Amino acid sequence: MKKILYLKGLLLLSALSVSLSSCLKDECTATRNFITFEPVYRTEAQIRQDIVIEAPRALKNPGKIYIYGDYILVNELHEGIHVISNKDPRNPVNISFINIPGNVDMAVRNHILYADNYIDLVTIDIQNANNPKYLARTESVFPTLGFDPSRGHIVFYNEIATQQEVPCDWQNGNWFWQGDRVMVALDALNSFASANKGNVSGASTSGVGGSLARFTMASDYLYTVDNASLNIFDLTNAVSPKKANTVNLGWGIETIFPYEDKLFIGSQTGMFIFDNKNPLAPALLSTFQHARACDPVFVEGDRAYVTLRDGTTCENFNNQLDIVDISNLLNPRLLKTHGMHHPIGLSVVDKTVYLCDDDEGLKVFDASDWNKLNIKSHLGHFTTYDIITLPEDNRAIVIGKDGLYQFDITNPSKLQELSRIPVAK
User: Fold this and answer.
1) What is the H or E stretch that residue 165 is in?
2) Minimal CB count within 10 Å: which of 70, 279, 330, 406?
3) How far apart are the two ends of the chain, measured CA to CA in Å?
C-alpha cells in the first residue's frame, strides 16, 4: 500500500513539475516589432466608378514613369497619373491629373493611354493632354490577391507598424496570419515574400517606359505581366482592347522589357527570353536563373543588365548588378557580378550604366569592360527608383521618393541637373 501511495506521489509531483514548467514557459513573453499587411477590399461597384480628369496636383507618392512625345506620365501610387508637359525640360509643367484608383502601370500608343484600374484595363485619349478624355474599360482582366463575397476583391495591402507580445522562444517562421492580415516580424522582413514604373501623328507610335515597367507595347499589341503570367491584348480596336492570349510563366514575375523582336521578362528567380516574331504567341528561348531577388532587366546589344536586391518581395540578401552575355539567346551566360548598395531601376547607353541605387542616389558606370565597373559620377543627394534615358536628346529622367528629376547626360562624368519637380512635404 505504501508503495502504491509512493508511486502516486511521484506521478503527482511529475505532473505538477510539467505543469509548472509549462506555466513558467508560457509566462515568458517578449514584445516584437511587426509590420502588419492589412488587406484593402474593393467591390466591383467601387472599382468601376467613373474615371475623373482633375486639375494638376502635387506629387505625393510617385511610382513609375512613362515618356510619350513631349509628355512625362508619373504614376501616383494607387491613385492615378500626373500628366506633365515637358516641351521645355528646364521648366516642366504639371498640367492635369487622371484619377484612376488602384493604378500602378501604364503604356501609350497613338494618343491612347492604357492603364490598370485594379482588376480592369481602362483607355484614355491624351491627344489633348491638357484635357484627357476617358474612353472605355475592359473588365476583369487582371488578377487580385483574394476575394470575399461580402467585401469584394483584395486589391493591395497597406503596411502598418505594430507591436505584438509573443512567447520568448517564438519562431513560427517569423510571421503568421491574424484573420485576413499577415503579421511579419520587422527583423525578418527582408526574408518575407509580400507584394507590395505633344501631338504625334503618322505611323504607329508608342512611348517609353522605365526598367520597372509591367506594361509595354509591341506591334499592335499591349503586353502586361502580373505575378504569374504574360497577358497579350489585341489593339485592333484600340479603344476597347481584347485579351488575346495568356502565357503562364510561374510565380514571382516582376518586369517586362522589349528589345527588337524579343521580350525580356524579369522574375524573382531569373530572366526569361522570348522570341516575339509571332506577337500572339511569344516563344520561350531560354531562361537565365539567379538567386531569388527582385529583378529589373535592361538590354543593349548582346548584353543584359540585371539588378538584384534584397527587400520585401525577394527573400534575398544579395545586392548586385549581373552582366549577362546574350549573344547566344539560347544560352545566356553570366559574365560578371558587381556588388551594389540596393539597386533598383537602370538604363544603359553605349555601355554606360545609369543605375538607381535607392537611398544612395544615381550612379553612372563605365561598363565597356564588363569585368570591372569604373564609376563616372555619383549623385547621392536624393533617393532614386527608376530612370529613362533619351540618348537622342542627351537627357535622363529619374523618379524617386523625393520627386522627378531631369539631367543633361552629354557628359556622363558630369551630369547637369536641368529641372526637378519635388514631392510635396
Assistant:
1) strand 152-167
2) 330
3) 83
